[in-house]
Design a protein that fits this description.
By secondary structure, the protein is of the alpha/beta class. Helix content is about 40%, strand content about 15%. Strands 3-2-1-4-5-6-7-8 form an 8-stranded mixed sheet, sandwiched between helices. The structure holds nicotinamide-adenine-dinucleotide.
Length: about 400
C-alpha cells in the first residue's frame, strides 16, 4: 500500500512546488543544484564553506563545469547558505559531501555523519533524504537510517530515504549531470518512488534498483571496473616493454576490433620471460572457478525445494560460449554440465543454435523449449543469453531457475 505522505509529496513534485536542498556544493552538488533549478525547483544549497557560499550568492562559480552564466540563468531559483537550520525549509535533501580515504585507505565517512546530523536536526514529516556520496555498501541503512529514525519519525511513511550515486565525470564535454543515467535505490518502495519522481524532471534517464545496497554497489562496481581495466592496461604496458613493443600501437590496433586475443597465450609467453602476469592469471583463476560456483547455486536451489542434485532433471539453456552463435569451444556451459553429471544429475539442454554436440563420449541433442519440458525440469539453468530463447516462457513455467547469464565469463 502506498503512503499518503508519498503521494502528496509526489503531487507537489509534479507541480515543482517544492524546495530541493543540496548539502555540499562541490563538483557533484553544484552541477546537480543547477540542473534541479533549471528543471523548475527552488534549490537551497547548504555548505559549511563560507567562501563557497558567498561566491555562489554573488554569482561566481568555483566549479569548472558550472559557468557563472548558468548561475545567472537560474537566478533566484538557487540560494546558498551556511545556516544548517534552513534545511528544514527543504522538502528533499541530497547529500553530496566528500568521502575521502584515510591514510590507511579506510573509508572516511565523517562528512556523511556530520551532514546526517545537520539533516536530522530539522527532519520533519514529508521530507525525502537522498545520499549521493560514494561510499561502502550498507552506509544508507546503517548510518543514515538509525540516525534519522532516532527522531521518532518512521522511514517509508513519515520520511523517505534513498541512495543515488553521483556519476559525474568532471570535464567531460559529452556527459554531464542531465544526460548521465542516474541509479536510485530506496529503503522502501515508496522511498524509491519519491526519489525517482524528484530526479525525473532534471535527469534524462533514471535507473531504479531494488535496494540502497544495490545502488551503493553500482557505484563501487563502476569504480572497480575502471580500476581493474587500468591495472590491466598497465600490465600490458609492462608486457609490451619486456617484448620491445609499443603499447599504444597495440592498444589502438586492438581497439579496432574489441575482442581479446587469448590471454593465456600471453601469460604462457611471459612465463618464459620470467614475468608473472598477475591480473591475467587472477582473472583466469576467477573465471575458471565460476562454473563450480554456479553448480553450488543449483545445489542450493534444489536443496531449498528438498531435492538432491543426484537424480534431478536439470535443463541447461544455451551451451554456446556466447549469445547467438553455434561455437561451444571453451564454453563454461560444458563445465557446468560435466560437474552436474558427476554429481548424478540428469542434464538436458536447449540451444537454438546448437542442435547437437558430443562431449566426453556423450551425445547431446537440443530439446524443444516447451511448457512441458520446463515443467518436467527440477531446475532450469540459464547459461547463454540467446535472443532466440523465449525467457517469458521460462519465467512462466520453470519451477526453479538459476540465472548465470551476466556473470559467467564468455570469450567475447
Ligand atoms: N568530483 C568528482 O570527480 C567525483 C567523481 C566521482 C565521485 N565523487 C564523489 O562525490 C562526492 C562529493 O565529491 P565532490 O567532488 O563533489 O566533493 P567537493 O570536495 O568538490 O565538494 C564537497 C563540498 O561539501 C562541503 N561539505 C563538507 N562537509 C559538509 C557538511 N557536513 N555539510 C555541508 N557541506 C559540507 C565542502 O565544503 C565542499 O564544498 C564524494 O563522495 C566523492 O567521492 C566525486
Amino acid at each position: 500500500m502506498s503512503s499518503k505522505v508519498a503521494d502528496s509529496l509526489i503531487e507537489r513534485i509534479e507541480r515543482r512546488d517544492i524546495v530541493f536542498g543540496i548539502v555540499g556544493l562541490g563538483y557533484v552538488g553544484l552541477p546537480l543544484a543547477v540542473e534541479l533549478a533549471r528543471a523548475g525547483y527552488r534549490v537551497l544549497g547548504y555548505d559549511v564553506n563560507r567562501r563557497v557560499v558567498d561566491g555562489l550568492n554573488g554569482g561566481r562559480s568555483h566549479v569548472k563545469d558550472v559557468a557563472d552564466a548558468q548561475l545567472r540563468e537560474i537566478g533566484d531559483r538557487f540560494t546558498a547558505t551556511t545556516d544548517a537550520e534552513r534545511l528544514g525549509e527543504a522538502d528533499a535533501v541530497s547529500i553530496c559531501v566528500p568521502t575521502p580515504l584515510s591514510k590507511f585507505k579506510d573509508p572516511d565517512v565523517s562528512f556523511i555523519v556530520a551532514a546526517t546530523e545537520s539533516v536530522k536536526r530539522t527532519l520533519r514529516p514529508g521530507q525525502a533524504i537522498i545520499l549521493e556520496s560514494t561510499t561502502y555498501p550498507g552506509t544508507t541503512r546503517e548510518i543514515l537510517l538509525p540516525a534519522l529514525e532516532s527522531t521518532g519519525l518512521k522511514v517509508g511513511s513519515d520520511f523517505f530515504l534513498a541512495f543515488s550515486p553521483e556519476r559525474v565525470d568532471p570535464g567531460n564535454p559529452r556527459f554531464g549531470t542531465r544526460n548521465t543515467p542516474k541509479v536510485v535505490g530506496g529503503i522502501t518502495p515508496d522511498c524509491s518512488r519519491v526519489a525517482v519522481a524528484l530526479y525525473q524532471p532534471a535527469i534524462d534517464t533514471l535507473v531504479p534498483v531494488s535496494t540502497t545496497e544495490a545502488a551503493e554497489l553500482v557505484k563501487l562496481l563502476e569504480n572497480t571496473f575502471r580500476s581493474v581495466n587500468i591495472g590491466l592496461v598497465n600490465e600490458m604496458a609492462i608486457v609490451c616493454d619486456k617484448l620491445g613493443v609499443d603499447v599504444w600501437e597495440v592498444i589502438e590496433a586492438a581497439s579496432t576490433k574489441p575482442f581479446p586475443i587469448d590471454p593465456h597465450y600471453l601469460a604462457w609467453k611471459m612465463r618464459g620471460l620470467n614475468y608473472k602476469t598477475r591480473f591475467i592469471d587472477l582473472a583466469g583463476e576467477l573465471n575458471t572457478e565460476m562454473p563450480l560456483f554456479w553448480v553450488r547455486k543449483v545445489t542450493e536451489a534444489l536443496n531449498d525445494r528438498g531435492r538432491a542434485v543426484r537424480g534431478a532433471n536439470i535443463l541447461v539453456l544455451g551451451v554456446a560460449y556466447k549469445r547467438d552463435i553455434d561455437d561451444i569451444r571453451e564454453s563454461p556451459a560444458l563445465d557446468i554440465i560435466r560437474l552436474l553429471e558427476q554429481q548424478g544429475a540428469r542434464v538436458s539442454y536447449h540451444d537454438p543454435h546448437v542442435a547437437a554436440f558430443s562431449e566426453n563420449g556423450h551425445e547431446y541433442r537440443s530439446v524443444a523449449l516447451t511448457p512441458s519440458t520446463l515443467e518436467a525440469a527440477d531446475c532450469v539453468l540459464v547459461v547463454t543469453d540467446h535472443t532466440a530463447i523465449d525467457f517469458h516462457l521460462v519465467k512462466r513455467h520453470a519451477r526453479v531457475a538459476v540465472d548465470t547469464r551476466h556473470v559467467l565469463p564468455r570469450g567475447d
